[in-house]
Design goal:
The chain is an alpha+beta fold. Helices cover 30% and strands 28% of the residues. The chain is elongated and about 175 Å long.
């Protein structure tokens, strides 16, 4: 298909050409003696209508004298006349009168054409002349051997004279140039051969090189190639259009560079990587190498030093990728251009900078641009843009571009510095909020894993804890705050501290969650103090107490997934109890669940991040975790790794916390129970039993203190109880003494006055034991004390 279907309408023949114009012959008296077919086409009159008649009849007006004068002229004359057409129209025509007297015939040849067509043809000629003499588009004609034939004035100026290249091949025009457009063959001879062979023009090829008239500056041209054929369709060669688009091309490059910089620089929140991103964006379009010099404080995430930057020691980061980047100390002389740039906060160009101390290699032949890294009116460091292979100096537009790149890098470096500082603070917060080492105890073996979804900060809203309780028991808790990051972690820390405080009151799980729910609801009210942030709304929590004496585990849940239990044989049991509402919502009460666990049972406490994500429903995740627990004999650390390695690949959408415990039971010979009737005489019997039991355990050295503590606790129980008093001695990591009765009156420690007959018992207990306290049970209370082994 012809790409230019209206090409046949383009005709560069003059309308007055005898092959096209209307022609007639007038005799000496001005009568028409000859009338051509072209004249009939133009005016519509047939030869029979006009031959032998005066030509003046064809004029719309009757300037007879003027027509007579034109017929008697001795040289060709041209004028504009209004001619009458046969259909009554008036045609304004350009008319040329040419005398034939030199041939011995007194006649005049008249050639006429429509004036409007002639003016259009003259405009085409003017256009061609303008393209040849005034156009900024370079036009060059090559023959079929691809040798230069002709060039217009623009080409002549670029080549510093076209005449010297006529007859030479195209490759001689720009011997070191190259095509930078890659969608066609990069060789100019192949392009020309393709155009002449196929007739298909190639347009918009970008060519880079140095013009002979300006050999110092590199230019870019947009080149197009078209085949040339004559009127018979025979190949004459081809012509090239070239337009210098250097400024536009560089502007587009700068724009694309800025777009790429906006996407790349500062996205990593890492100081070294940001410096590498600046180098990667600027090389090689703007510079051959980029160096970034920063104070050590900025790299470490601290505030940049105040005062004059050149007076501080700097570290140079150089390379194009973080893996290639090297760090070396650098300093500037007070008179150096680097120091001037930092002191004035302005870019400084140096075409032959001296080598700075600490730099390797000579910089004598390089052109450097020094740009301070400024953000919030603070100098963070210096960026050096260096050219060695490109001799072009940094122009004003390139300096502006470098300043903008440096500003983007400075913002990215400052953000990375602030992030580094905040990340360090967040890690400190994490270490302070989560247990780093769980306390030693005899009830369970423990392993845990904590994976925050915001792995950049390293903290999240999940928490877990193991809390030693009286009677060798342990409290176990896991919780989940909505969201993740520093705010969720702060809320989590406060909730964890509250749970620990309530747990040390020896509340049962349901009672603890009820009180915690009330606190969260109270502090989440619109007018309440911001003790808990908005993240506390809808918090889930599970709290459990395990007693190694009887193997009993009691737990309650506030919207949290129940634990998964695997007994010593590996058989897995899932709870069917529906958890209570999340904390802060109120409504339904919390219920305790009692489990009897054999020694060696596995219990998994977890948050929903372990068993649920966007691609896996929670039931499938629980089944997956339960399958891991069937590997009962594996070490707990290995089981934790197995459980988390089973998570779907890809980024986490929620924090994941896993707490695994393997239960233990205290040996029966380490527990001694004695039921005492409510008789004060039984206090002595209790002391005797304590003495004998301690002797059996090899703890006779502890007998005096233990007998005194038991005596005071039993005496106190006898005084207020209405039923039997239970004495329990437990040999664990310390000696545990517990006295239980059916009274709900809590004893209080007080300082007795000199004349008081009582009130010193609990004071003695507090002095002799390392810890003591009271816990309430369904049937009454238990007063306990812990005595350290000698």
């Amino acid at each position: 298909m012809d790409r230019f279907p209206n090409t046949a309408n383009v005709d560069f023949h003059s309308p007055l050409d005898l092959s096209k114009a209307a022609a007639a012959v007038l005799d000496a008296e001005g009568r028409i003696s000859g009338w051509g077919a072209s004249a009939q086409r133009l005016l519509g009159h047939s030869p029979q209508d006009v031959l032998g008649k005066p030509a003046g009849r064809l004029l719309a007006s009757t300037p007879g004298q003027r027509l007579s004068a034109l017929c008697k002229t001795h040289k060709p004359r041209s004028t504009v006349l209004d001619l009458c057409c046969r259909d009554g129209r008036t045609l304004r025509a350009a008319v040329t009168f040419s005398p034939l007297e030199h041939l011995g015939v007194a006649a005049t040849v008249v050639v006429a054409a429509e004036l409007e067509a002639l003016r259009g043809w003259e405009a085409q000629l003017a256009m061609l002349q303008g393209m040849a003499t005034e156009s900024t588009v370079g036009l060059t004609i090559f023959d079929t051997d691809m040798r230069v034939v002709w060039g217009n004035v623009s080409t002549d100026l670029e080549l510093a004279g076209i005449a010297q290249y006529v007859g030479r091949p195209a490759a001689d025009l720009f011997p070191e140039g190259e095509f930078i457009s890659r969608h066609h063959p990069p060789d100019e001879d192949q392009i020309m051969e393709h155009v002449m062979t196929t007739g298909e023009p190639i347009m918009g090829m970008h060519y880079r090189g140095r013009a002979p008239a300006d050999p110092v500056r590199e230019h870019v041209w947009s080149c197009s190639y078209h085949r040339l054929v004559d009127a018979r369709g025979e190949l004459l060669g081809l012509f090239e259009e070239s337009l210098d688009i250097t400024d536009r091309y560089r502007a587009q490059e700068r724009l694309s560079l800025l777009v790429r910089a906006g996407k790349r620089i500062g996205a990593s929140l890492d100081v070294r990587r940001t410096a590498a991103e600046l180098a990667d964006v600027a090389v090689p379009q703007l510079a051959d190498e980029v160096l970034v010099d920063l104070p050590p404080a900025v790299i470490e995430g601290r505030q940049p030093p105040t005062g004059s930057a050149p007076g501080h020691s700097l570290l140079r980061l150089h390379g194009r990728t973080p893996e290639e980047f090297r760090t070396s100390p650098i300093s500037y002389a007070p008179s150096s251009p680097q120091a001037l740039s930092l002191a004035t906060s302005r870019p400084v160009v140096d075409d032959s900078p001296p080598e700075a101390p600490g730099e390797r290699g000579s910089a004598a032949s390089a052109s450097c641009l020094f740009v301070p890294l400024l953000t919030r009116d603070t100098v963070l460091g210096l960026a050096t843009f260096r050219r060695s292979s490109n001799p072009d100096p940094f122009g004003p537009e390139e300096q502006t571009l470098a300043v903008e790149l440096a500003e983007r890098a400075a913002v990215g470096i400052d953000n990375a510095r602030r992030y580094t500082s905040q990340h360090a603070a967040a890690l400190v917060l994490q270490r302070s909020l989560l247990p780093q080492h769980l306390p030693e105890q005899s009830a369970v073996d423990v392993a845990y894993r904590y994976l925050p979804a915001d792995n950049r900060v390293g903290v999240g809203g999940d928490w877990f804890d193991l809390i030693p309780l009286s009677g060798a028991r342990v409290g176990l808790t896991v919780g989940d705050v909505v969201g993740h990051g520093v705010h969720a972690a702060a809320t989590m820390g406060r909730l964890r501290a509250t749970v620990r405080t309530l747990a040390l009151l020896d509340l049962d799980p349901a009672e603890l969650l009820t009180r915690l729910d009330g606190l969260v609801a109270q502090d989440s009210e619109p007018h309440a103090n911001d003790w808990l942030s908005d993240e506390a709304l809808g918090v889930t929590c599970l709290y459990a107490i395990y007693n190694p004496v009887n193997g009993r585990c009691t737990w309650a849940s506030a919207g949290h997934p129940p634990p998964i239990v695997a007994d010593a044989s590996g058989s897995v049991a899932l709870s069917s109890l529906t958890p209570g509402p999340p904390l802060g919502l109120g409504g339904l009460p919390y219920e305790n669940v009692d489990l009897s666990l054999s020694s060696g049972s596995l219990v998994a406490f977890f948050t929903d991040g372990v068993v649920e994500d966007r691609r896996t429903d929670i039931d499938s995740g629980i089944d997956r975790l339960a399958q891991v627990l069937t590997w009962q004999r594996c070490p707990l650390e290995e089981l934790c790794d197995r459980a988390l390695s089973a998570l779907p690949p890809g980024p986490q959408v929620d924090d994941a916390t896993l707490l695994l415990i393997r239960t233990r039971r205290l040996d029966a010979e380490h527990v001694a129970d004695l039921e005492l009737p409510p008789d004060p005489a039984m206090v002595a019997h209790a002391r005797t039993l304590t003495e004998r039991q301690l002797e059996t355990w090899g703890l006779s050295e502890l007998s005096f203190n233990a007998e005194l503590v038991v005596s005071e606790l039993v005496t106190n129980g006898m005084r207020y109880a209405t039923g039997p008093v239970m004495l329990r001695l437990i040999k664990d990591r310390c000696l545990l003494c517990e006295v239980s009765d059916n009274a709900h009156t809590a004893p209080h420690l007080r300082r007795a006055r000199r004349d008081d007959e009582g009130g010193r018992g609990l004071f003695l207990v507090a002095q002799l034991s390392q810890r003591w306290g009271t816990r309430y049970t369904a049937s009454g209370k238990t007063i306990w004390a812990e005595l350290s082994f000698p």
